[in-house]
Amino acid sequence: MTVHPTIVDVTERIVARSRTSRSAYLARMRAARDQGPARAHLSCSGQAHAYAGAGADQAALATGHAGNLGIVTAYNDMLSAHQPFEQFPEMIRKAARDAGGTAQVAGGVPAMCDGVTQGAPGMELSLFSRDVIAMAAGIALSHNVFDAAVFLGVCDKIVPGLVIAAQSFGHLPVVFLPAGPMTSGLPNDEKAKVRQQFAAGEVGRDELMAAEMASYHGPGTCTFYGTANSNQMLMEFMGLHLPGASFVNPGTPLREALTRAGAQRALMLSALGNEYTPVCRILDERAFVNGIVGLNATGGSTNHLIHLVAMARAGGIVLDWQDFSDLSAVTPLVARVYPNGLADVNHFHAAGGLGYTIGTLLEAGLLHPDTETVAGPGLHRYTEEPKLIGGDLTWQPGAGESLNDRILRPASDPFQPSGGLKRLTGSLGTAVMKVSAVAPEHHVVEAPARIFDDQEGVKSAFHAGELTGDLVVVVRFQGPRANGMPELHSLTPILSILQGRGQKVALVTDGRMSGASGKVPAAIHVCPEALEGGPIARLRDGDLLRVDAVAGRLEILTDGVMERAPAPAGPCAHGAGMGRELFAVFRNAVSPATAGATVFGVFDGD
C-alpha cells in the first residue's frame, strides 16, 4: 500500500527541519557505539563495586562475555499502574540468566499520579517530573556497565521521561515493559455521572468515594483512555513494546511471558549479538509520525502535544503543532474509548485492540510500514497478537475485523474522517484542542469571557451561582513558567454541568487539561502564556472570544485588548510548599509548551 502523500510530506518537512540537530545527535550515538561494551573499560575496582551485590551473577559479570541488562524501574506501590513492577526485577533476572546473560536494577525513577494530585498543589510538580525522570534514568545508566536496558514505566510523565533518557543513551537497545491495565470496574460513564452529581451537591462524599473505589479497584493502569494508556499505544506504534504487549492484564501468565520475552529480546538486540538495534535507529522521524497518527486515530491524550515534542527533541527531531494538525486532518478516528466513548481499554483490546488499529491504518497507507522496531524490521509485526500455547509464547495474526464496531472501526468506515486533535491560532495566540469527544454543535463557541487566575476561583464562582449564560472560562497564569502547567481536569465536572444546562461553554487556558479531556471544548496550552505577557494576560471579564475548532481559530473579538497592559501575576502562591521551592530553576528555564515545555534543549550542540 502506498503511503498517503500527507504522511510523506509531513515526514519530509520534519526531516528537513531537523537535519542539523538530528545529524549531530546521530554522530554522538555513533561515537558512543564505537567505544564498544563499556564494562571492560572500567577499573577492576569500579567493576568490583558494580558487581558486589550481584550474588550468583558475579562470575558472569566479571568475565565480561555475557550481556548485562540494565533495569530502570518506576516501581512504587502508591500507583496502581506501577504496583505490579515490584515483582518484575527478579522475573527479568531469571529470564536473562536463561538467555545466558545477567540483569541488574540500574536505578529507580520517581513516578507520581496525576489522578491523586488533581486540583492540589502537587500537580504543579507533575509536568516537571517528566524531566526529573529523564535525569534520574540518565544517572541510572551513567554507570556504563550495560549492553541493553529495559524500562519499567506506564503512566503520564513516566514514559515520556524514560523515552527522553533512552534517547540520551540511544546507542543502547531499549525495550519498554508495561504492566497492563487493571480489570474493568465501575463503567466510566457511571463514575463521571457521580462526579457531576457531587459537584452539583446532589450526592455526598460517601457516594463519590464508593464510586471512585469501584472504578479504581486493583493493580494496573486506570482503564480510561488517558495519558497513561496513550503512552502504551505510542510504544507499540513506535516499536518499543513487543507486539500486543500493552493491554494484557497484570498477574496473568501471558503478562509474565511477555515480560520475560521482552527482557530476552533486549539482550538479543545488543551489540554483542547479530541483531544490534539501538534505540536511536528505532526512534527516527518516521516513528514519531507513526506515533502522531496513532494518537489522532485513537483520540489520545492532549498531553502528548507537549510530550511527543520533548521526546523527539531529545533525539534531535523537531516537531511542531502544525505537524499534529496536518496529520489529524487525514487520519480517521477509528476508536471510541472513554472519554471519547463508553468503552474502556479492556473492551478496546477485546474488540481487536492495537493490532487491528495498526493493521487498518497500514492498509489505508497512513503509517510508515518500514520502521525499525524491537520486534524486527517493519511495523507489520504489530498487527499480530501474543498467545500462550502449551506454555510457549507465540504470535499469531490478529483480528482481521473489528469484533465490536461501536468501539473499533476500519479506516474505510471510521467514526469521523479526521483525527482527534486540532491546532487553533489567532489573536489570542496558539493553542490545541481535543475534539474527538466534543459534539459538533459545541465545536464553535462565541461568548463573553470570564477571567480567573486559578481554578479555585472557577469553583468558587460556580458554587456562588455566578457562571450563567454562554461564556468562555479563561484560566490563566497556569503555564509552565508560572506554576509548572498543572492539569485542570478537576474543572471538568463543573464545566460539564454548565454545558448540560444548555449553556454554550468553553475553556481557554495556558495550562493543561488532561488525557481525560472530554465533551467540553477546551483550548489549552495557550502560547504565549500569561506570565510572558501573552494576549491571555490582557483579557478582562466580558471580552468577546471565539473558540472555533472548525476553522482552527482562537480570536479576541473585542477591540483594543492588545493596547492594554498585561495583568500582573497575583501574589505568588506557587514558589514554595509541597516541594515547589525545589523547582524554581525549572520554572525559570522551561521552554514554551510549543517546544515541549522542557528544561532540555534540542541537543544539537548549540
TrEMBL record:
Cofactor comment: Binds 1 [4Fe-4S] cluster.
Keywords linked to the UniProt accession: 4Fe-4S, Carbohydrate metabolism, Gluconate utilization, Iron, Iron-sulfur, Lyase, Metal-binding
Pathway participation: Carbohydrate metabolism; Entner-Doudoroff pathway
Residue ranges constituting the Dihydroxy-acid/6-phosphogluconate dehydratase N-terminal domain according to the UniProt record: 69-379
Dihydroxy-acid/6-phosphogluconate dehydratase C-terminal domain boundaries: 407-597
Catalytic activity: 6-phospho-D-gluconate = 2-dehydro-3-deoxy-6-phospho-D-gluconate + H2O
Record-listed [4Fe-4S] cluster binding positions: 155, 222
Biological process according to GO: D-gluconate metabolic process; Entner-Doudoroff pathway through 6-phosphogluconate
Signal peptide feature range: none
GO cellular component, one term: cytosol
Claim: Lyase is one of the keywords in the record: yes
EC number: 4.2.1.12
UniProt xrefs under SUPFAM superfamilies: IlvD/EDD N-terminal domain-like (SSF143975), LeuD/IlvD-like (SSF52016)
Cofactor(s) needed for function: [4Fe-4S] cluster
NCBIfam families, per the entry: edd (TIGR01196)
Family, as annotated: Belongs to the IlvD/Edd family.
Function comment: Catalyzes the dehydration of 6-phospho-D-gluconate to 2-dehydro-3-deoxy-6-phospho-D-gluconate.
The protein's name: Phosphogluconate dehydratase
Organism classification: Bacteria, Pseudomonadati, Pseudomonadota, Alphaproteobacteria, Rhodobacterales
